[in-house]
Specification:
mainly beta, about 10% helix, 5-stranded mixed beta sheet, about 260 residues, 12-stranded mixed beta sheet
Length: about 260
């Protein structure tokens, strides 16, 4: 299933099932929280008549660093003992499809990082890797926007990743899919800048969820970004960054600022 969070034409906000072929999708509204079995309200409308929002409102976005071998080789400061690197983004960094990434005036090198995002479906703590399928609600596309120059200057990558608009998510959550081998492609102004498979991740999805949940309680709607392939680079005013993942969709955001 594809489940989106939208603003309906009457101004109300809610979730709905996205159904139909590309270009002719409809949104079938569902009642209440989206994490359980969806209950249709009976209201349907063309997707084009709604406004897509970030598909979830997380309490936190957990970022996994250097989880693709090629990208790790681009980052010589990678951890040497195999421990996963974890950073955090606040909820205030989240924007949805079509939202604008705003370049902070104090930062001169802001980069895109296309990633697969894991969305948690129920409260969990210390979940064994073998049981993580029971707590994963689904998957969406993400752009882990990062002020690279600030991160290098301060050694605080959480600070570098936490600016408002630095966590685009969307276009919706795809549930019931196998995300272990999906093609992920990032383009800037239609030029391919990153392309790889999630099968290239150093640490798999189950291991990441188990590890993160061993450190912190995860709540419904929380998001884990699973790392970016090689090829991330600087964005500038006027650029449009699109992250596409098989079986999910495409997340596109324009860049504005200096």
């Amino acid at each position: 299933m594809r489940i989106a969070r939208v603003i309906f034409p009457d101004g109300t906000t809610g979730h709905g099932l996205v159904e139909g072929p590309p270009g002719s999708e409809v949104v079938a509204e569902i009642d209440g929280a989206p994490f359980g079995a969806p209950v249709r309200t009976g209201r349907e409308m063309p997707l084009a008549e709604t406004e897509l929002l970030a598909p979830v409102v997380p309490t936190k976005v957990v970022v996994i660093g250097r989880n693709y071998a090629d990208h790790a080789r681009e980052s010589p400061a990678a951890d040497s003992d195999g421990t996963a690197l974890i950073f955090l983004k606040p909820p205030s960094a989240v924007i949805g499809p079509g939202g604008r990434i705003t370049l902070p005036p104090e930062c001169g090198d802001v980069v895109f990082e296309g990633e697969l995002a894991v969305v948690i479906g129920r409260r969990c703590r210390r979940v064994p890797a073998a049981d993580t399928g029971s707590v994963i609600w689904g998957y969406t596309c993400a752009n882990d926007v990062t002020a690279r120059d600030l991160g290098r200057q301060t050694s605080s990558w959480t600070q570098a990743k936490s600016f408002d608009t630095f966590s685009p998510l969307g276009p919706w959550v795809s549930t019931g899919i196998d995300a272990s081998d999906l093609r992920i492609t990032t383009t800037v102004n239609d030029s391919v800048r990153q392309t790889d498979s999630t099968a290239s991740m150093t640490r798999g999805i189950a291991d990441l969820v188990a590890y993160v949940s061993s450190i912190m309680t995860l709540l419904p709607g929380d998001v884990i970004l699973t790392g970016t392939p090689s090829g991330n680079g600087t964005v500038r005013h006027g650029d449009v960054v699109s992250v596409s993942i098989e079986e999910i969709g495409t997340l596109s955001n324009a860049v504005v600022g200096h």
